[in-house]
## 1
Amino acid sequence: MPKIIIPDKILGRSVEGAIERALANPDHSTPTSSPTTNFSASNVEYNWLEGDFGRQVLEEYNQLVQNEYQNASALQKLSFADDVVKGSNSFVFAVLNKVLRKQGKWVARPVDLEKCLKEGTLDLNGTYGDSGLVLRGENDPNLYLAQNLATQIQTKGYSVGEDPIVIPLAGLDLVYDSSSPHNLAFQLTDSSEIIYAPQLNKSNHGKKFNHRDDNGLPVFEEGGSRTLYSNAEGGLIRLYRYWDLGLNARNDDLAVSGVNGRVVFCAEGIAP
Amino acid sequence: MPDIYQNSTEVCQLNGESLYMHDVVDACLRGRLNLFLQGDTGSGKTQLARDAMAYFPNKSMFVLGRNDMDTRELFQQINLEKLRTGKSSEELRELTSKIDTNLIVVDELPNCVPAVRAQLFNLFDGFIEIGGKAYPIGNGYSVGIATGNIGQQFTESSNDLGRALKDRMHVVVDVDYFAPKPSDTLKILAGNTNPRVEFGSEGEGKIEEICFKYKALSEKSVPLEKLFVANYLIHGLDYCSKGSKREMKGAWPTQLENHEQGMDTGLVLPVSTRAAKSLIRLSQALDDISIEKGAKSQDYFESMMQAYKLVSAYSGVLNEADVQNKYDGNHYSAIDAVIATTRQQFRGNGNDDPGQSENLAAGLEMVRSGKKNKKVLDLFGTKQNPTRWTFMRDTLESLIGGD
């Protein structure tokens, strides 16, 4: 091999001390690859964010909100009571996911919630929790965020504006953005899943289902016990499991959070 | 370059300097890279090629591609009709060595029959093939510029012409996407109304200068960052859920997982080692040009991306169905999407997300130490959990081994 000179810097990063830096940031060291390889598909355990682990994650979350997001109000929605973390909105879950990913865990995606339900590990009844965003078009509601996300999605080669697109929060990053109405903006990462979801069209509002498909989207059947709420048009809205185990894809208030909000997170075979 | 061809449309920005079509031609000449100019009739591609001939007075050759031209006529054009009369190898070598043509310009190359086309490609590469033997021409420097308007035939693998172009032309530029501005056409029209292609004055050539720059470029060491980028384009882009896109052969992209269909995984194939060499060479040449224009610093990654765009957009690596359906047939838009993802892979989204840059720096620190570090190597994935970056394990290990 011809003699190769090792530079002092690569891509603007200093070589000296790089090992320490890289190994100190496990989330950076996670190799970026195709989306499904970042979320283990088998041997997954589902848990509420509670107890000592919940408290520790919440502390780290609050620090991150202060240091990286200038205490944006949409992120100050979590509380710790009755030994469990309470609250849920789209922004909060994107940041929580960042904290959890450092420990090889992630906030539940729609498909994870369905598996969790099937296994009966957790009783999800009576709580709600965000799992994704639904991009219906590059318009209102949430015009700025919708356009911003649509551009990123189009860059990846997807078209926007036909069927709704589901983006699980587990693969999204959140950045501080003073131009955004909430001072926050979603960023796709290499782990982002982009799922076309014709099931979430407005015309399916009120349809019943019992089960969801491989993407965690409803498979409609007459006489099903669960309901899809999807009477919304355009823009960017939330996707969350409803207190009655239905699926809500119509709420355009991305920041609002209630006391019944709960975080379900996934870990690969290890309980916290 | 002589300025009969006028075009102030920027092809790309590099190191803070704007580069134009003339610069791309210049880069190909000093990199000795065969250039194919694709474009609609009257787009100026022939004029651009002819302008380049002024660099090589008496040492360039212009061939107008015609479907009734045979190799005999071609040899007559280069004063080699004697080749047809069956000389000995030594005599043939003596004959061909007298040909000191440095630049061969072929207008409307697709019109040529395959046998003539093959000989022209050989001339571009600096030799003539007679009776299965290659005889060098051009005194060590020869390069070709060809023009044509063949649309999608580039990308049809069943098409002989498309395959030949992919094999023998190093850089393909669709000039229609870099059309002259109204201010340029105003200058052209105000100058004269002769619709014919004009020959530049055969004044002072720049043969020595170009040959010198070519030699300097060939001997210049390639920054490691560029080699990493090239390896990513060869191996990183090969990675997919099925293991290797190359090994999938015709099953790519239809047999990929659903989520991969909309990612760069389903949009682009890896580059070949040969194409990687071309794009490194082009990147080096573009860097030199930007420095001559006043650039104060060099961004190796961006330079490689611009070269990748010019070398790969029409090289057959793109999923043609996606280009048509998702990018309105615009190969450059499709390759821009690949570049955006590649940029994110290498550089991330900012300080909080450094992409793989920090891991690459860690890998180099490990190489400096001379010892393998499993934790560092695992940053790029493992055998059990491979990623598109797993190729870096072998890359870094080889640097430690120095083999």
## 2
Amino acid sequence: MSLLSVENLKTSFGSVNVLAGVSFKVKPGETYALVGESGSGKTTVIRAIAGLAPAQEGSVKFAGQEIRGLPERALRPLRKDISMMFQDPVGSLSPRLTIGSLITEPYRIQGMKERDLDAEARRLLQMVNLPAHFVDRYPYQLSGGQARRVGVARALALEPKLILADEPTAGLDVSVQGELLNLLNDLRERLGLAMVIITHNLNVVRHVADRMGILYLGRLVEEGTTHDIFETPRHPYTRCLLSANPEPDPDARLNRIALKGEPPSLLNRPAGCEFRERCPFAQEICVQIPQWEVQDGHGLRCIAPLTPEVTA
Amino acid sequence: MANSRSELGTIIRGVARDPLGLSGLIIVGMIVLSALLASWITPYDPVAINIKDRMQGPSLTHLLGTDQLGRDTFSRVIMGGQVALKVALPAVFGAMAIGLTLGMLAGYGPKWLDNFLILIFDTIRSFPTVMFALAVVALVGPSLQTVVFVVMATSIPTYGRVARTQTLTLRNSEFILAERSMGASMARILGVHMLPNIIGVLAVLAAMDIPTVIALEAGLSFLGLGVKPPTPSWGALLKDGYALIRQTPWLVVGGGLPIIFATLGFTFLGESLRDVIDPKLRKNR
Amino acid sequence: MTETLLEIDNLSVVYETSRGDLKALRDITFDIRRGEIVGIVGESGCGKSTLISSILRLTAPNMRFRNGEVRFKGDNLLMASNRQMRDLRGSDISIVFQDPMQTHNPVISIGQQMVDIQHRSSASVREKRARAAKMLGFVGIPDPEARLNQFPHEFSGGMRQRIAIAMALMSEPDLLIADEPTTALDATLEVQIIERLQELQREMHCAILFISHHLGVIAELCDRVVVMYAGAVVESGDVREIFHNPKHPYTRRLIECDPGHFKERARVLPTIPGEVPDLADLPGGCIFRDRCDRAMPRCASDVPPLETLKEGHRAACWLNHEEVPA
């Protein structure tokens, strides 16, 4: 049974269709990565799930219960089970509160005053490998990595079942990214958490995600296990994304597949396959609108998908 | 929670380090102190009439001379300071508190509330203060409370608009979004997360506003719309002194000089406060 | 042997703060030759912003040059007058910044800004506009003549960065400083910009000082690499040498930590534990000591000098002394 089930989620801001029908499922304990670039709508998806952005159509079910469009009062108890991590590590921490207050905010908001908040604060800091005396520090005194870990601690405070993480490694130096990802993996295993991670960094995805979906212009174009997608990507956009990550090796063979042009404006969605104008493999039949098809757990929206020979 | 006591200490130290801020602190300190101790330090009873000694110039017994009823001008000046603060402080802080609350609601609440509150702010602002004072005085008669009310009411839009702008700016910050994602209520978001971040700007505004309010009270008293005689007020002193300026200029000096000093002192303090708080605001953002 | 264009020679810069001197740059030494692309690899706190400020002499009020020289075409820029620096900036030395949104004046059209940059030229406005349009075409902006009249907000982030590069190259500078120009962009845009930079560099033969923490981009673009950590140069050399044969533990660990390094999912990712040291309160000895997995007792007491290990390859590490026979 899915923990989170998103079906045909649509969001528009005025006449701009940011999400044109996104569907995916997440099982308990699973990590799902939503990969996309600017304009793909990935941030809107996660915010819509959390009730922070509107969604005009579609369904979001958590543990079987429909939560799309629920009023805030009804959502509040669910916030124990679904928590979020934000992209800006320091900016997502209220600047005038101490770290101790910040990570125990969830308790206060949920009215759990009877708990020993001091003890909880220390326990949470320890869980993310931060020293106990950090309870008295302020966000501006923290490095990006430390602030990021405070964000993790806060997200874990009420022992949620699902964490929504927005670019968890953004702003982190490469040398400390691993630390955070290891922490997330470790906590995931220990606590049986499910996670939805949104990112444009495929390298991160490879190491933390079980399954992944590629978003383009507010729609999924490909979905599958991380292993499958990395080994046999079938959508040209996926292929371009994968090849856009240069290796730290000057002699690496560059089998880059370059994208043409820029992402189109959301006000002016292209006809037919929306990726057609930039696709290096576009063919004539791509003027037809591709449908979503699933085969062996691998979903694809493409009329002329890449064959394994091409992707080698 | 945020360690406000040590933060206040840091701010005061920052202000004291700046020469202008230090002079502001000293002047304001003197005014506040003399206002607090007025009843004890006035050499004479400010309202005691003594026709025998009327219209005297400055001397060792009467530092600033006496007025047309023989009242000691210096004592009246000191008591006038107490009156000035009795009007300015409640009026300004009252306006700040109300303006802050309304401004935050306007900036964070639903659009109809915002539109409604802006309408109220603009309506109040479009009323000339003196007309408004006249109307209120005509209804309830002149008194200290009337002046406080008039001044407070007319100041609310200033704080309201600034609070609203600050709230609008911070409303879409990641940390506010984070609080919403945890289910924080509007009251909590405004009270715990917005307020501490915008109070600094309002405090600076308040410090700069006090001299305006003092001058306003003086102006109203000068027009006879302020505190009732024989309560001494700097404006009342100016009013009496204006008519008697050929016989004795010392009443005008006694009424005018303190207003100048108060304005300078609070303005220096306010500017220095702003310089101290501003980099902190920028750093914390 | 191509001539040296920029020489940073033992540059030491501090910021005076209430906590004492922040030693932001210590004995920085490297050079850039004409037409060469040199990459600076560094993470937060490595001093790259201070380095750029020093080269361009766009200094903060509490910045002090304690030692060293910045020689551009032989002249020490630290001794140059403000006027001379103004003449240099934007003509001989240009810069592209990280944030494409901050670079452009939002209320002036792109065309106007590109004409204004050419203020030193005596050409007519029409000629200047034509040059601007040509430059926009060069960086891949479609329909350049028409777009000259548009404003920055009408362009996407990727396009704005390309415009920034076009503007920086208009004066045909000898040196282009690119400060994390692609960090704020998506990966697919990043590779487009990098390829464009490579083409332009081949055309115009300018030298590029490319600062980034994306190791993959550095490996692809640069001829030589300088690795900085906490205000010091820890290693420098040819790009192949640095990536295939790193001689400093930080360089080695950095390459190992780069997620692009892995072909398969790793159970546990490598990381460099600890934090960058406080620049106002430096530990004794090697700056990397407390995060190094191979530190020796000597590392705590003596600062290793930046020494040449073989032609063009320098590193500051006592381990290299162990390997070289006495």
